[in-house]
Amino acid sequence: MCGRRALCLSMKPLGLLGIHHVAVICSDYERSKKFYVEILGLRVIAETFREVRSSYKLDLALPDGTQVELFSFLDPPLRTSRPEACGLRHLAFRVLDLDEAVRSLDAHGVGCEPVRTDELTQRRFTFLADPDGLPLELYEEMPVSS
Questions:
Q1: pLDDT at 138 over 60
Q2: What is this structure's pTM?
Q3: Are residues 72 and 29 located together in one domain of the fold?
Q4: What is the side-by-side strand order in the sheet with 135-140?
């Protein structure tokens, strides 16, 4: 936060272009790798075993170029998701067909919350959890008209 309002107003924006990556720490690397790659369909960019840390780093990509970094650490502490805690709440993915995405997850044995409609945007969404209970949202995009 800026201490002086006049100074804050005169500062140039940072020039942020978007989200480059989101980092996710998992408790079971192979289980989470299967979930993010085989079930969610993220593309593997690189997989690195970091000997010094005895852990993996898996770089994954979404079609728009956004990346998810999947890390494994020995005995990571559990993340508090419920009750909701301060900090990052969830990770939301855009989809064009929410019903098809939910059917696909169901076929893989991944349950979703009931589909709801955002009262502000009128877009449909649902929540699910990754293998470690990290809340994930699927948010239905409107198709772009051509």
A1: yes
A2: 0.84
A3: yes
A4: 91-95, 135-140, 124-129, 116-117
